Amino acid sequence: KEDYPISVQFDFNTGVFEPQEKSVERKVSDMVKMFHDKTAVESMIKAGDPLVYEIFYYGFKTSASDMALGTTRIQPGKVGDEYYMTKGHFHEAFDQPEIYFCVKGEGYLLMETREGEFQAEKWTPGTISHIPPMWAHRVVNTGKEPLVFVATYHLAAGHTYTEVEEKGFLKCLVEKDGKATFVLNDKRK
Ligand code: 6PG
Ligand code: NI
Fold first, then answer.
1. pTM of the complete model beyond 0.95
2. Is position 151 within any domain?
3. Distance between CA atoms of residues 128 and 88, nearest Å
């Protein structure tokens, strides 16, 4: 049945859709390299290792195409003063873009090229962003409720996490005087 149309049913509130191929959970312990406050990382892991975000996937593969759907739900919260976020990655293939659609919550999409161009998009429900090929992408939840977004891309894109793990993004989002504030990443100073 691989060449036949298929629909899934998406819940705007939870970010979950059915049917689904698989889901992945990322906890603080999966993101030790990403958050800058290592003391906070350690104590949060000891205190129960909370869930940071979940991804729900479907790969719509046919004999001639490989369109994928992923929805992500990031919990509200912080590690130290830094807001919960996705790990962030480059697509492995050099010619693979992606569309992100924010449906719930508020935050920022951070993007950066290997040449050091940085761009942040403010997200509210309804913001749709195009991520061009060769731009690393990460989403940060600066709000008080879960942030849910829908992503479409090709399975052929692949993921490269190592560079973001080592260097992070140019800027981090931390809470300062109760407000989301951009600060320069320590690793880039
Ligand atoms: C992708 C998408 C998206 C992303 C998740 C989790 O290329 O698959 O960008 O589905 O994987 O939002 O983010 P991380 O992959 O960075 O953990
Ligand atoms: Ni991606």
1. yes
2. yes
3. 18
Ligand nearest to the CA of 165: 1
Asked whether the predicted pLDDT for residue 1 surpasses 90, the reply is: no
Print the domain residue range for 56: 9-188
Number of domains in the chain: 1
Atom number of ligand 1 nearest to Cα 57? 10
In this prediction, residue 2 carries a pLDDT of 82
Helix (H, G, I), strand (E, B) or coil at 165: helix
Helix, strand, or coil (residue 22): strand
Q: Which residues line ligand 1 (CB under 6 A)?
A: 55, 70, 72, 86-89, 98, 137, 151, 153, 157, 159
As for the ipTM of the complex, it is 0.98
Q: Which two tokens stand for residue 173?
A: 């989002």
Which residue's CA is the closest to the ligand 1 atom numbered 12? 72
The answer to whether position 95 is within a domain reads: yes
What single letter denotes the amino acid at residue 120? Answer: A
Instruction: Give the angle 66-139-81 at the CA atoms, nearest 5°.
Output: 155
- Mean pLDDT value across residues 65-77: 97
